[in-house]
Prior knowledge:
The chain is mostly helical. It has 2 domains: 8-53, no CATH class; 66-91, no CATH class. It is built from 2 helices and no strands. The radius of gyration is 15 Å and the shape is flat. The model has no long low-confidence stretch (mean pLDDT 81).
Amino acid sequence: MGHGGRGRYDIDPATGVAKNCSGLNGELHQSYGVDLRPLQAKCCTPNVDCAACRLYAPALTTLLFRQRDFMGSAPVFDGWLSMCEQWGRIFLPDGEA
């Protein structure tokens, strides 16, 4: 599925870090190391270039919040709904999707 003709993430040119990735450590998300301490890095995979990142959970979640990008036509919106449903089947426990 496409993402509205633009890259998956809005990249900050100064830092190279995605500004709108739902997997970034911050107010709404925090990754933890195997020692159960919060990671101080940008995300759970700090060695991955944000512009090329295709990590499944954060990438799909980021697209879930871009609903308006997928409202151009019924087939495109249907594809977005299918993606939301797929995300729910993968990442939500049974009975919650």
